[in-house]
Amino acid sequence: MAYPQAASSSTTSGSPPTVKVILTETDLQRVVDRIAHQILEKTDGADGTVLLGIPTRGVPLARRLASRIAAFESVDVPVGVLDVTLYRDDLRLKATRAIGPTDLPPGGIDGRRVILVDDVLFSGRTVRAALDALSDLGRPSSVQLAVIVDRGHRELPIRADYVGKNIPTARAEIVKVALAEIDGLDEVKLLGEETK
Amino acid sequence: MIKHLLSAADLDAQHATLVLDTAAELANVSSREVKKLPTLRGRTVVNLFYEDSTRTRISFEAAAKRLSADVINFSAKGSSVSKGESLKDTALTLQAMGADAVVVRHPASGAPHRLASWVDGSVVNAGDGTHEHPTQALLDAYTMRSRLGRVAGLHVAIVGDVLHSRVARSNVLLLTTLGAKVTVIGPPTLIPVDVGPALSPDLRVSYDLDAVLPDVDVVMMLRVQRERMNDSFFPSTREYARRYGLDAARMRRLPEHAIVMHPGPMVRGMEITPEVADSARSTIVEQVANGVSVRMAVLYLLLGGK
């Protein structure tokens, strides 16, 4: 579970929540296709590039991006998993979290361009943890960030290089990304009271 | 997660599996170039050792340091304990210094339980008298799982001085929790009366090593703890070695896949011959390496959250 969702889920209030679908299955497909194209464009063919998904939903997203990139230009971009639990700054605020696997592609990340992939960019703290984790694992030539949804409310000076959709939100609202690999369907929803 | 780890019985199957899974992830850190995680930065772990130990103390120290905790080593020798300070006063001193976790080894069974009522931090039992040594049992289970793929359903023989062995007690509790079948084997003088009912209703007892060997997946040899014996429990070292020592001939009676474990320190020529200790079936060195990962997992799960 991405940290922003976990953080905001504790701040739901008593009034009945409204649900708004932001991206449907087709929208999500288009967004992933577009980001794949942007990556190819911005990295000049995705040579020496590694996609690292941040669990939970960043992992299938990274795999989808890699398969779209392979479909468009038949380049095989290595995909890995980067668990950031042990680098979080909020460990002491919550019950102990289970650690997930970290799995780097063969060849590691030294001297390569790493693109971090996550579902939602919110406070930026998950990405901060990911940057710290990366520096313990090697020395990438550069690090970029791809997210499906940027919902604002940054608490750190962090921005994404590839954004699927910018969604203005209130802090108390929840952005819920569902992916077929994990949730059985593809959909992005905004939960919360938008009009009060 | 629980607050203290005093006994292997504190862990149910779910928690024990969580420790082993966490240890498996943390084991990868040991093969990285940067063998350090920032996870427990600013936390203090005190190693309080009233009894000699090399591998357990070093293992806990390495584990705490890899998680960036501050480590204070305290050994009874050269401290105020030799001037007559009690365990309680030492505990209050540690409390005043703000220890987040106390790893304690003590010659008296139950000392960690008393300590847990005096300090606010977590207490980890690193061996108390002839009672328990839960992290050893966890690392043994971890070693079995990494060598044989599972713990549930394995038949584990624990051989030797069961009477004085905290390793045996913790292992019986943890392994039966995880679904393994355990048989303790040794001379009748070194097997506690009613050990089965006391630890686990499924525990089997045997006095005949050769009869059990062909049927086991794991044989765990225990050291004969001479320092705790103020009586003679067997006629001679040679007789003990002949009946309960693991030599090459006995090792050949084991099934093809079976592994040989020893918690260390071992007495070569007594409970195990050098041939067996250095064979490919022996996991003795692996156990030490796994100890660091498992203790990292325990420290993380006790101290990592709120």
TrEMBL record, chain A:
Q: Where is this motif: PRPP-binding?
A: 114-126
UniProt protein name: Bifunctional protein PyrR
Query: Could you tell me which species this protein originates from?
Result: Asanoa ishikariensis
Record function comment: Regulates the transcription of the pyrimidine nucleotide (pyr) operon in response to exogenous pyrimidines.
InterPro entries the UniProt entry points to: PRTase-like, PRTase_dom, PyrR, PyrR_bifunctional
Top enzyme class, one word, equals transferase
Q: Which reaction does it catalyse?
A: UMP + diphosphate = 5-phospho-alpha-D-ribose 1-diphosphate + uracil
Give all residue intervals belonging to the Phosphoribosyltransferase domain.
27-177
* SUPFAM superfamilies associated with the record: PRTase-like (SSF53271)
| HAMAP family in the record | PyrR
Coiled-coil regions, chain positions: none
* Assigned protein family: Belongs to the purine/pyrimidine phosphoribosyltransferase family. PyrR subfamily.
Enzyme Commission number(s) of this protein? 2.4.2.9
- An example molecular function term from Gene Ontology annotations: uracil phosphoribosyltransferase activity
Query: Which keywords does UniProt give here?
Result: Glycosyltransferase, Transcription, Transcription regulation, Transferase
Biological process according to GO: regulation of DNA-templated transcription
Automatic annotation (TrEMBL), chain B:
**Where L-aspartate is bound, by residue?**
83, 166, 223
In UniProt terms, what function does this protein have? Catalyzes the condensation of carbamoyl phosphate and aspartate to form carbamoyl aspartate and inorganic phosphate, the committed step in the de novo pyrimidine nucleotide biosynthesis pathway.
The Aspartate/ornithine carbamoyltransferase carbamoyl-P binding domain extends over 3-145
The annotated pathway is:
Pyrimidine metabolism; UMP biosynthesis via de novo pathway; (S)-dihydroorotate from bicarbonate: step 2/3
Protein name per Swiss-Prot or TrEMBL: Aspartate carbamoyltransferase
> Which species?
Asanoa ishikariensis
> Any idea where the Aspartate/ornithine carbamoyltransferase Asp/Orn-binding domain is?
153-302
Q: Which Pfam families match?
A: OTCace, OTCace_N
Q: Which GO terms describe its molecular function?
A: amino acid binding; aspartate carbamoyltransferase activity
> Which HAMAP family does this UniProt record tie to the protein?
Asp_carb_tr
Question: Which Gene Ontology BP terms does the record give?
Answer: 'de novo' pyrimidine nucleobase biosynthetic process; 'de novo' UMP biosynthetic process; amino acid metabolic process
Keyword line: Pyrimidine biosynthesis, Transferase
Task: Output the Gene Ontology cellular-component terms.
Answer: cytosol
Q: How the protein assembles, per its UniProt entry?
A: Heterododecamer (2C3:3R2) of six catalytic PyrB chains organized as two trimers (C3), and six regulatory PyrI chains organized as three dimers (R2).
Tagged with keyword Transferase: yes
Organism classification: Bacteria, Bacillati, Actinomycetota, Actinomycetes, Micromonosporales
Q: EC no.?
A: 2.1.3.2
> Where along the chain is carbamoyl phosphate bound?
55-56, 105, 133, 136, 264-265
From the record, give the transmembrane residue ranges: none
Family in the record? Belongs to the aspartate/ornithine carbamoyltransferase superfamily. ATCase family.
Q: Which residues form a coiled coil?
A: none
Entries under SUPFAM superfamilies matching the protein: Aspartate/ornithine carbamoyltransferase
Q: Please give the catalytic activity noted in the UniProt record.
A: carbamoyl phosphate + L-aspartate = N-carbamoyl-L-aspartate + phosphate + H(+)
